[in-house]
TrEMBL record, chain B:
Protein name: PadR family transcriptional regulator
Lineage, uppermost ranks: Bacteria, Pseudomonadati, Bacteroidota, Cytophagia, Cytophagales
Superkingdom, natural source: Bacteria
Organism name: Spirosoma liriopis
Residues annotated as domain Transcription regulator PadR N-terminal: 19-90
Amino acid sequence: MTPTPPRFADRLLRFFCDPYLLEEVQGDLHEEFAYQVQRVGERRARWRYWRDVLGFIRPLAGRSRTGRSQTGGSSFMKRRQRNDPSTFFLNAAMIRNYVAIALRQLWKNQLFSLINITGLTVGLAVSMFIALYVWHEFHYDRFEPFADRTYQIVSVAKYGDQEVTFSGLHESFGRAIQQQIPEAEAVVRFSAGLGEVVLQSDQNHRFKESAIGFADQSMLSVMGLRLLHGDAKTALSEPSRMVLTRQLAEKYFGAQNPVGKTLIFDKQYPFTVSGVLDDLPTNSVIQFNGLVSLNSMPALGARHQDTYQRTGFLTTYLVLRQGAKVSQVEKKLDKVKVGVNFVDASAKIFLEPLPTLHLGGHGDGARNERQSLYILLTVALVILVLAVINYVSLTTARATKRAREVGVRKAIGGQRSELISQFFVESFLTTTLAFLLSLILLQVLFPWANQALDLHMDKRVLTQGPYWGVMIGLWLSCSLLSGSYPALLLSGFRPALVLKGNVSSRQSGASVRRVFTTVQFTASIGLLICSVVLYTQMQFLRTKSLGIDRAQVVGLRIDGDMVPQFSGLRDKIRQWAGSENVAVTNTQLFTNNIMTYFLQAEKTKKQLMVNSMTVDKPFFAMMGIRWQYPPMGWEAGPVTKELNIYNQTLIKEAGIADDPRQQAAPFKNEPTDGVVNDFHVRSLHGPVSPMRLTVVSDTNRTMLADGGYILVRLNPQTNVPQALDHLKELYNAHQPTSPFDYYFLDEAYNKLYASETRLMQLFNGFTGLTLLVACLGLLGLMTFTVEVRTKEIGVRKVLGASVAGIVMLLSHDFLKLIGIALVIASPIAWWAMNSWLQDFAYKIDIEWWVFALAGGLTTGIALVTVSMQSLKAALTNPVKSLRSE
Amino acid sequence: MKRAFLGEFEEVVLLAVAILDESAYGVTVTQEIEQQTGRAVGFSTVHTTLQRLEEKGFLSSTMGGATAERGGRRKRFFAVTAAGRKALQEVKQVREQLWSALPPQTLQLMGG
């Protein structure tokens, strides 16, 4: 069979080619094809055929010439109407004309252009930034080579009516999987480390580092982590090997290649650096600063050994073979579990796909995260829509000015489609300008915004193809949206009426503009209300009495191996600060790492989640914790034996009434020595948990076995940096084994609300931006109204109208719209914020003044915007406006 | 229309049509140019140029001659008109005039 040219290309040719020319062109193409098939083979001939056909499509080549026929000309394109010599509407010359006119318009109305472009730029930049952020959040962990079949193993156990998810598993679990489950292609065990650890390369490079993790050697290849130096296969295969991130490697070894060098881990264990990792992608749940081979862990001292042998601390990932069924593997895992130590037998095992870990997963945190992403996306969309609305309403408002142009164009034979394309070209030009400006803005502000908002984002996202697809989509749809209404409205003018001057500016699209203004202010007021509520709630959380006094308290970290020096150091600090201002505890307050036990209450048989901490005697007085029932002989002298102190909530949950000191112990063998009033050591998202405080004597050393904190309350008048310097001196004088480390209680408390604070900052920014955009729009509209009504105002003034009267006349229309906006926005904002507040156990009521404030503020700002123009109009001498006609 | 100006490519196409005499149409013209000048030319470019030359009055065309490999479609044969011949003559004359005005030492330098 003789090969035929590509069918589709032929059809394409038939579609666009002038039928008059089709026969010869197609004939030539077929003949050439037959020749090329013999010369270079069918495949390449087909390629050539396509290339030739596409060569004939030249939408912009159609220059009108009088040719051998009316339909001729040197273009091969079909004409829309045969025998009509008019130009094709996407004609090069006409497009040049459109662009020229558009540029002239932009230049002539500089204020309007400025407002339009500023509004669009801000809108686009903000929505691009948010799109970037949301994109980043939704594209976690897609880069791993086996991302689609990598799963994390989690166990979900029930305690009472509480579901608790554990991601930490014992090290034997991973080994058992490898032996017992054939579907597992690879197993990776990873832990982000057990808190901070000291690393040292030489005398001058000795720092405390966090997130020095442990991992199997399969980690590097399975997770697709790229090594700058070293060999991924062997980097973690043997004990005493360590991989550093680039940042850490530079910190200790500068620019030189550190592979083969030695780093001392935790003061005494030498490690060989076996690799340097490229910066980790920020869109991954796996984050660490350095990695130690997991099999070296048992040799790293008692604490590590104990953790390794007796706890579930390893996040375990599983790569399934192609085609393996998740549910079957889960069932098998349930069986594996039985043979392994330290796994709760009642817990159910689940496999969570790696890419969904960040935003999916068990637990509420992820749901909230997702929700706030959607909120952000909505806000970004709102800002963009507002900016587009600005463009539309300003363009239509100026319709009268353009009406004459439209009339003339139509009168000399312009088609409606041509006018539509003209206005599209204009909007396209404006949005393109704004798009380019916003790209520049984004580039400039990216590092700043990233830091200010505490978003750990990667600039690498900016280079990804799909992201640019989204951006270009945004830009094109923005051009189309902002161009379509003006194009349809303006091109619909009837030339006869327009040229007679019968189109009133106040008719054309006035009601649409009113709707637009209302929408803009609804959004602004709504966001303003949200901001105010967010702010008051945060203020409430910051100032709420916690039952514990956190002001001016600094906590010094004492390492476990500093127990011998501890008493001396404490006494020195007591001498300096006054013994009533110093207390000791084993727990870092206001963090989520507070020891929690599950205990069964003797009386009610309820499982209780009990927060537990060890403190010394001065802790209570110094931290301002109130007693409900102090232990017997509390005031009399020092504590000699361990005391069990419970909080009110625990006593209530345990079902104990009256004086608990006289009654049966809430838990087995742990009688009540005293009861304190409730106080918070965690965020106010939840109520106070049941709590047990163990009070130990001054001389007791078990408290610091795992390290602890000396809390020092500084005098309100103290110069804080000086005080810290002094504390550091005292600390360094006691042969410390690790660098000076401290935290402030109130800072730690505020950090608990980091995500809320971030949300608040974002909202404040957005509110400002929407108000800006809305006011820009208002300013534009007002300027225009004044321009159109100059004569009217002149006549009114001549007839005796007062300045105030004219300002009122010009402003009251807009004020009415703001009133409507307030009525629409209030219930929506109330509903949204009310559901947000449900996440807090302690929350404010949304009161009427919030709405009044938002309404008042918006009205005020709008009035200022409007009055600039209206006052100018009202104050103009009427002679000026009436003289020229 | 302005005085017909002959572009460089137009000149080449016009010459190719003149060389091919009776059998000049899209495919042959394209192949002729490729063979003689060694430069790859697009089909659409040749077609456009042929049309433009016809508009300018340098070429005339007639339909005719279908073959099987064209699926029975007719060809458009082109022939050089009197105006076309004159234009070619003019171009040649201008070239020769310019060449002859070249000082002999320059000609030597150019390896002529």
